[in-house]
Amino acid sequence: MKFIIGVSGGIAIYKVVDLVRKFKKRGDEVRVVMTKAATKFVTPELFREISLEPVMTDVFGNDETAAHIKWTKWCDAMIIAPATANVIGKLSSGIADEALTTVAIAMTKPLIVVPAMNEAMYNSAAVTANLSTLKTRGVKIIDPSKGELACGGEGVGRLPESEEIVKQVDKILSQKKTLFGKKIIVTAGGTREPIDPVRYIGNRSSGKMGHAIAKAAADRGAQVVLVTTSNLTPPENVRVINVESAEQMRYIVNAEFEMSDAVIMSAAVADYRVAEPATQKIKKNSDTLTLELVKNPDILFELGQKKNHQILIGFAAETQTVEENAIAKLKKKNLDMIVANDVTAKGAGFAVDTNIVTLITSKGLNSYPQMQKSEVAEIILNELEKFLTNDKN
Ligand code: CTP
């Protein structure tokens, strides 16, 4: 493996010297990029001696031009250790003011951040928010360990020992990161169309299928935006946007669409909404109540009209002539794939953990037996990956 190790200024640098030695000893190649603050703790010469490679401390004045880009092309992954609160803040805001942050922002390969700092800094609202932003972008975080801190006392914030970092890096890189660098929008759950401030028209969709897809895509390294109506605990490492109505879902999906590589619409979007929801709670004054419904915009159809490079995957929840109906929707909405299921079948459909699906593309269809929704998510993403690779060629 070829690693770039980004070293920022923290007392834990001495462990990184050992980390570089460990990687070198087992045959990995390592190049070090240091912040100015890091050079106050150890000299670049030290890392040069143990890595037997050039050390970068500045974007300018290197032997090669655009060295930061060449380095990112050269490596398989970048590890930032120790990552100070300052560097984490810069990474999350996209600031590229030094060699380390400039290399990091240009990375198109796995980026692993190992924070190390005082416990109060680590637990601060800013660092917590910045780390969670990085996670939603597919950056992997190796949690600091607990123990004696350089500033005195005990707490969380210590850089893990070098052998522990090696172990965790190996584990992270052995996971399939086949969707790294891809932005995927996943919608989930049934929309809720307001009747008045307390009531809505809803449907039986639980959001389980969409949440399973979001989790599986994030596990493959994708940057996932989960637009959901569901109350389920969202998976880690995804950006969650909670919505209620079809109109809200449409607004968010459209706002995220241009920069995305794929949209997986697993949400059960209500076809109709109440024309004019009451602004006050409706009282039971009369024996009957008539609600006028108007058609909702078809989010997926609209995306099908305006897509340029995005892959579109829809769902067709049917109760009869499943395949025929699904194929018609695939064509009408200009989709790349549709996931059809008979929601009346046992072990399929709403609020259960399993599903029975048929994946349909313009090339044909593939029917699968009953599976866990997590497994269905994997087969959908396998197909999505095929589309995304063809797209590149
Ligand atoms: N969909 C959408 N916007 C809508 C309705 C549906 O984006 N207003 C999406 C769903 O998320 C799903 C697919 O379109 O991916 C389902 O297609 P659709 O034809 O709307 O299915 P049904 O609502 O089941 O349609 P019908 O009632 O005509 O069978």
Quaternary structure of the protein: single chain
Strand order of the largest sheet: 13-12-9-14-17-18-20-21
At the fold tier of CATH, the topology name of the largest domain is Rossmann fold
CATH second-level architecture of the largest domain: 3-Layer(aba) Sandwich
Helix amount: 25-40%
Overall mean confidence score, pLDDT: 93
Distance between the termini: 26 Å
Strand content: 15-25%
**Computed CA radius of gyration, to the nearest angstrom:** 25 Å
Structure class: alpha/beta
What is the overall shape?
elongated
> What is the total number of structural domains?
2
Small molecules held by this entry = cytidine-5'-triphosphate
Largest pleated sheet: 8 strands, mixed
- The count of DSSP E runs of length 2 or more, i.e. the number of strands, is 22
What's the name of the CATH homologous superfamily of the largest domain?
CoaB-like
Q: Helix tally?
A: 14
CATH class of the largest domain: Alpha Beta
Low-confidence spans? none
